[in-house]
Amino acid sequence: MFDQNELQFEMVQLLDENGNGDEQELASFSDEFLVTLYRWMRKARVIDERLLKMQRQGRIGTYAPFSGQEAAQIGSVMALRKDDWIFPSYREIAACLVHGLPLAQIFQYVRGRVIGKRMPDDLNIFPIQIIIGAQTLHATGCAWATKLKGETQVSVCYFGDGATSEGDFHEALNFAAVYRVPVIFFCQNNHYAISVPVHKQTASRTIAQKALAYGMKGVLVDGNDALAVYKTMKQAVEAARNGEGPMLIEALTYRLGPHTTADDPTKYRNAEEVEQWKRKKDPLHRLRVLLEKRGLWTEAQEEAWVAQVNEEVTAAYEEATANETGSLVDIFDYVYGKPSKLLQEQQQEVARRKQRKEVK
Amino acid sequence: MAEITMIQAINEAMRQEMERDERVIVLGEDVGTNGGVFRATDGLLEQFGDQRVFDTPLAESGIIGTSIGLAVNGFRPIAEIQFLGFVYQAMDQLAAQAARIRFRSAGRFTCPIVVRSPYGGGVRTPELHSDALEALFTHSPGLKVVMPSNAYDAKGLLIAAIRDEDPVLFLEPMKLYRAFRMEVPEEPYEIPLGKARIVKEGEDVTIISWGATVPLVAKLAAEMKAQGVDAEVIDLRCLQPLDIDTIMQSVEKTGRVMIVHEAVKTNGFGAEIAALISERALFSLSAPIVRVTGYDTPYPVPSVEDDWLPNAARIVEGVQTLMRY
Ligand SMILES: Cc1ncc(C[n+]2csc(CCOP(=O)(O)OP(=O)(O)O)c2C)c(N)n1
């Protein structure tokens, strides 16, 4: 087993900060793939910026922006099959979008609508997790079920560097490795858990190396290099599908904005550090340079695409808010398959209040 | 009909449900080769193999958390927590995750798992093995809480719990596992969750109890009859959902209420029942409601546990107090 677990401190990277890389390696990606990948990343950035603005305008609730992490999220999801499972935390809006979650639904979610919590029936996306690390076990259990049934979906669990301090993370990796289930633990190490830097979170040199202790493979990848993420994920998914068991991937990345709309990152990060990541390491920038070099993308295309996405966002927002329904009465339906008598009494009370227009 | 113990009834329920439905699987610490520390899962590994019965790593949050993923993806896991005091290790996964999957997904996902765990005192266990923690979980909307008090109920309730679409915490009074035998039908049957059992009908006072204390209450009620106090004894069987109708009918008939439970008094489930009765039937009462419970301390050391637990003396005294009004 030990040979599987060679400590790899080296970071997988295909595309450097200036959009350069090993030509042969880069040649393996089709033009069409590169454009699709970039379009998704650009789109996600626009959506994230709009959501942030909308929160400031009071049109949506507390929001956890993901700008800076597009390559990690989109690069990884694009390596999945449509029927693979994903287990997102609150920061994986881009991953959910790419896996098929309609934008209008995302608006319903961030506006705190009851129905915003319901993933479409044909999408294997678990409810967005708020409790740090809890989803690592759900993903492991889900993958375990897949294996027991002899099916071939892979389960992918998203979480941050902070989550790797939680007990559930360790229990999940341990179960996953013992039962060799097709789950991929995808850590977006964005360097901070709210205000706490990763070196105060763990004394490990990398998070990827934690895989070693559990008997699974761990990989450190440049999380701002969408191509490296995609390639790493593709390998992990294939291995998992072939019954080779779980993998831990650490994608080294950075969130450019605040943790959520409720904190002020200038209190715990210096401007120079943020500038560095913004200017030099932006995941969109390096992919775009590559596209331009290949003659696949121009300034005009960029403008047109951003304008189109902006329209799409506006339309989705309107769709989501046009017929906003959902009442306090409804939430009682989602507690048990069949509500108890006491719960029914409470629901009836709310229904009476609704009729008297005391509640929505 | 065979006369069997509660632990045999529990074993039989699991075995029959595993035979009936291949989605039913069992996981937990020592549930496989060892058959469970109380032998509740004895023979299941031999019969169903290691793809249905799993000796898991020693991790309570892991057991319940992975059960959630298994359930969402098509299985019906029965997870064992070796002793209820260890459930604190898995508090989030049980109370916040399993209980809320339906709610958090607005009905898209359900979580049909059963978490079985022995609980209850009087058996001289080490620290944190005996605690009665049921009230914690009646505070977690989405969970059902079931507490059988005999072999017949245990089998029917467990089968109903396994077939239920929602997560069920199934608490087994370890003191009663082998305390007595009773006739239990061999074929599978369900006792609906949320239906209390009237153990003994009576006119003078209603005694409400569940789980480990029920046989003691029943025995004392029979003795009291000879001394002229006709007690009605209700075994709730389920705390969530609660059979409020059976409680209210009895309270309106007798006008006197005693609640007996092992858990500590403050914020015990007895407090909830007393509040419900005062909301609904205050003027049917001829006396204040009496609670006989564990004391508000951590579960004590073996040398004093019999005095700590609700015992015959305290229960009889409680009834006498009620009857003085
Ligand atoms: C169990 C738990 N503890 C604390 C919190 C509060 N909290 C929310 S996000 C967060 C930081 C998480 O950091 P990380 O895991 O690195 O993910 P990131 O936010 O960087 O994506 C904390 C402490 C929580 N939601 N859940």
From TrEMBL, chain A:
Entry EC number(s): 1.2.4.1
Signal peptide: none
GO molecular function: pyruvate dehydrogenase (acetyl-transferring) activity
Domain Dehydrogenase E1 component: 38-324
SUPFAM superfamilies documented for this protein: Thiamin diphosphate-binding fold (THDP-binding) (SSF52518)
Cofactors that this protein relies on: thiamine diphosphate
Keywords, alphabetical: Oxidoreductase, Pyruvate, Thiamine pyrophosphate
Pfam family, one: E1_dh
Reaction equation(s) it catalyzes: N(6)-[(R)-lipoyl]-L-lysyl-[protein] + pyruvate + H(+) = N(6)-[(R)-S(8)-acetyldihydrolipoyl]-L-lysyl-[protein] + CO2
Catalytic class of the enzyme: oxidoreductase
InterPro entries reported for this sequence: Alpha-ketoacid_DH_E1_comp, DH_E1, PdhA/BkdA, THDP-binding
Role of this protein: The pyruvate dehydrogenase complex catalyzes the overall conversion of pyruvate to acetyl-CoA and CO(2). It contains multiple copies of three enzymatic components: pyruvate dehydrogenase (E1), dihydrolipoamide acetyltransferase (E2) and lipoamide dehydrogenase (E3).
Assembly and binders: Heterodimer of an alpha and a beta chain.
Protein name (Swiss-Prot/TrEMBL): Pyruvate dehydrogenase E1 component subunit alpha
Native source organism of the sequence: Parageobacillus genomosp. 1
UniProtKB/TrEMBL annotation, chain B:
Record GO terms (molecular function): oxidoreductase activity
Pfam families registered for this protein in UniProt: Transket_pyr, Transketolase_C
Alphabetized InterPro entries for the sequence: THDP-binding, Transketo_C/PFOR_II, Transketolase-like_Pyr-bd, Transketolase_C
The protein's name: Transketolase
Residues in Transketolase-like pyrimidine-binding domain copies: 4-179
Taxonomic source organism: Parageobacillus genomosp. 1
Record's keyword annotation contains Oxidoreductase: yes
Entry superkingdom: Bacteria
Keyword Oxidoreductase: yes
Lineage: Bacteria, Bacillati, Bacillota, Bacilli, Bacillales
Cofactor field: thiamine diphosphate
